[in-house]
Design brief:
two-stranded antiparallel ribbon, 3 helices, 29% helix
Length: 105
């Protein structure tokens, strides 16, 4: 778990932004400590504010162009692919490609 002091300091470095929403979020797989957590979301409209706040500490670095697949960072992805080609490739790999559509209508 991340210490609450880290979040408090980050919020101070962000000039104490106002929360956008506060709600209880239930875990998909409940951890040992509690079955839900308090989820607080903030809206930042200027990325430079976040960059400056993260530069004031050395715990977390900002990576703007990163792709993830679950918990794994994807490193071998095509640089730029035509969206139509990407859709065609995804359809080829789909397990549903051999099932006729009329069965589900």
């Amino acid at each position: 778990m991340v210490p609450s002091k880290f979040f408090q300091q980050l919020l101070r470095n962000l000039d104490d932004p106002q929360p956008n929403a506060i709600r209880n979020q239930h875990h998909w797989r409940a951890p040992i400590l509690s079955s839900s957590a308090r989820k607080v979301t903030y809206r930042l409209f200027d990325l430079n504010v976040l960059k400056v706040a993260l530069e004031k500490q050395n715990t977390v670095t900002l990576q703007e162009q990163v792709q993830w697949n679950g918990d794994t960072q994807v490193t071998d992805y095509p640089s730029e692919m035509d969206p139509r080609e990407a859709l065609a490739a995804a359809k080829k790999q789909s397990p549903w490609k051999n099932i006729q559509r009329q069965n589900y209508l």
